Amino acid sequence: MEGKRLEYRGEEALKELEKFTAKADEVQENILKEIIARNCETEYLKKYMEGSKDVLEFKRRVPVITYKHIYPYIQRIANGEDSSLISGHPITEMLCSSGTSDGEPKMMPSIAEDLNRRTFLYNLIMPIMNQYIPGLDEGKAMYLYFVKAEMSTPGGLPSRTVLTSYYKSKNFRCRALDAFNDFTSPNQAILCTDSKQSMYCQLLAGLVHRHQVLRIGAVFASALLRAISFLQRHWVDLCNDIRTGHLNSSVTDPECRSSMSTILSSPNPRVADEIEEICSCPSWKGILPRLWPRAKYIEAVITGSMAQYIPSLESYSGGKLPLICTMYASSECYFGVNMKPLCDPADVAFTLLPNMCYFEFIPLGENGTLLKDMDEEEEVPKEKLVDLVHVRLGCYYELVVTTFAGLYRYRIGDVLQVTGFHNRAPQFRFICRRNVVLSIEEDKTNEDDLHRSITMAKKLLEPYNALLVEYTSYADTSSLPGHYVLYWEITEYISADNSPTPLDPKVLEECCITVEEHLDYTYRRCRTQDKSVGPLEIKLVQPGTFEGLMDLFISQGGSINQYKTPRCIKSGNALKLLNSNVKASFFSPRHPIWTP
User: Fold this and answer.
1) Predicted local distance difference test score (pLDDT) of residue 370
2) Phi and psi of 388, rounded to 5°?
3) How many CB atoms are closer than 10 A to CB 591?
4) 271 membership: H or E segment, kind and range
5) Which has the closest alpha carbon to 508: 583, 445, 566, 437?
6) Distance CA 574, CA 487 (A)
7) What's the pLDDT band for 579 if we cut at 50, 70, 90?
8) Spatial CA neighbour of 100 closest among 161, 145, 158, 168
9) Which of 143, 329, 353, 458 could make a disulfide contact with 334, Cβ separation 3.0–4.6 Å?
10) Which of 126, 128, 145 is nearest to 137 (CA)?
11) End-to-end CA distance of the chain
């Protein structure tokens, strides 16, 4: 596969995209044949296929699985057994998932050529963007990227996040010196494992180059907001560094200090004064285009659970910078790209690239009614799966992949909806994760239900210049009946007359009932008729609580790049942290409306 390093390949890359999507069915068939041919002698496949290389036999015999089924094989390889347990090619590393979607990080096998597949997808991004926004080669990109200190498995394989793996690779470090991949952050700052020193240096570099920055971004929206919060706390020090031309002594990493010495080559009091004037304003609404006046857009993942951060990003951008989500990927595999990057965030859809892996789909119904009927661990009939080119417009599916590295008919856990097609390749909207569910009794509330309900409730905060900046949930069954608990962190903005508008406690109670009114029929029946679920509770937490939650997960092995706030809390330590920061609690004042 072409694309062995990050580089701008323009029309050539787009032609490859057209070629693969025009023959999506042929590409997918060949991908599956190649995977089977390579791996038919592995212990895992031989158990089901007895050495056969036949595609129909694969579909007839190989089961649809979740992580618990493949974990024993992965663990054996991590402990030093041969890769041939699941892969015909040597497994070179174990990629760790974020661990925030369902509590525990997973280890995903990866082979050397997987890196080229990821780079192929990255190399599509700028040619696609260049079709919609001209002049992106006339300045720099301020992308805030981070690595996590890697470990080794007992058998000696590197164990690290997929992004740490990519940023440390030659594909990224030795990328072509072209105008479309000109980043403000030096590699040394990106590769610093101390996230605070890395953040400081990357923000400093971005501020020094503030008049050259055309793009602002991070992997996830949450990481970009964390950077803005960091900037609010440290802009005085950053300005002082720019003014004096000397790096703050708190940065002790030798590589960071060396790389930043060329950026801070001389004092620049003019730029320092500009930044100080902007950052010292009482309100930070619209601060991003003021700090980086040539910026054309913000790039980050803003789908799924990240959609919660859209209002905050729009506030910091003053509504002047489009929010762009370019790609769909996971630790297991990279999946697809957004062919219409300037679309509304609510309409983001990804074209799945048929050369990434072999795709299959579990049908979940045309209107979402079946989303809750199939448990994550329920056995999926093999004949039920649909291949890539036979999905239907408007229908919902759960994504299943077979990869070169040894995952076979593996359930990713993402619920997708078909929104269209690019040539023969379907385009999907990300709906939610299957395994994020609140439940007390018969009620089952998934991530999308919860987000939609909270979106309606938080509108009640707007007249008070208040913004819900973060939330999570917990099913509290410590008393009867059990009830849903929402942890909310709210920012109250200063109004035009520089005085905050007090937030009436009754407003929070109305937020509780508004959430309940927008949950599904079964929940409202359990609350109103059966009385098996108690009144929903909102617990307001102190400012900075969710940053503390992020720090907790990062301290346990998570990565800033891959961190997603868990929408349902399962960790006892996380729950303890949240409860220790509660400053007020509010309950629904009445039953939600329910009609038999």
Assistant:
1) 47
2) -60, -45
3) 15
4) helix 269-279
5) 583
6) 12
7) very high
8) 161
9) 329
10) 126
11) 58
Angle between helices 572-580 and 545-555 (to 10 degrees): 150
Position 552, amino acid = L
Q: pLDDT of 235-268, one tens digit each?
A: 999 999 999 999 999 999 999 999 999 999 999 9
Q: Which two three-digit tokens encode residue 260?
A: 């930043």
Percent of the chain with pLDDT over 90: 70
3-state DSSP helix/strand/coil percent for the chain, to nearest 5? 40, 20, 40
Measured over the CA atoms of residue 367, residue 103, residue 323 and residue 7, the dihedral's sign is negative
> What is the secondary structure of 97-164 as a DSSP string?
P-S-SSSS--EEEEETTHHHHHHHHHHHHHHHHHTTSTTTTSSEEEEE------EE-TTS-EEEEHHH
Instruction: Indicate if the alpha-carbon torsion angle 276, 281, 287, 289 is positive or negative.
Output: negative
Q: Which two tokens stand for residue 213?
A: 């920055």
Asked if residue 374 has pLDDT above 60, the reply is: no
Which one-letter amino acid corresponds to residue 275? I
Polymer length in residues for the chain = 596
When pLDDT is averaged across residues 71-77 and rounded to a whole number, the result is 96
Nearest Cα to Cα of residue 356 among 331, 330, 336: 336
CB 130 within 8 A of CB 136: yes
The Cα–Cα gap between 356 and 333 comes to 7
Q: What is the residue whose two structure tokens read 């993942």?
A: 301
pLDDT at 486 over 90: yes
CB within 8 Å of 570: residues ≥ 6 apart: 102, 103
Residue among 339, 345, 262, 338 at smallest CA distance from 302: 345
Average pLDDT over residues 525-545: 91
Tokens coding 41: 């002698």
Q: How far is CA 188 from CA 169, 216, 347, 542, 588, in A?
A: 13, 19, 36, 35, 51
Alpha carbons 413 and 436: distance in angstroms, whole number: 10
What mean pLDDT is reported for the chain?
Answer: 89
- Our CA dihedral for 295, 300, 304, 307, rounded to 10 degrees, sits at -30
pLDDT digits (tens, 9 = 90+) for 391-413: 999 999 999 999 999 999 999 98
**Helices (H) then strands (E): counts for the chain:** 20, 22
109-131 exposure pattern, b = at least 16 Cβ within 10 A, e = fewer:
bbbeebbebbbbbbbbbbbbbbe
- pLDDT-derived band at 480, boundaries 50, 70, 90: confident
Cβ 472 vs Cβ 463: under 8 Å: no
Mean pLDDT over 48-66 rounds to 93
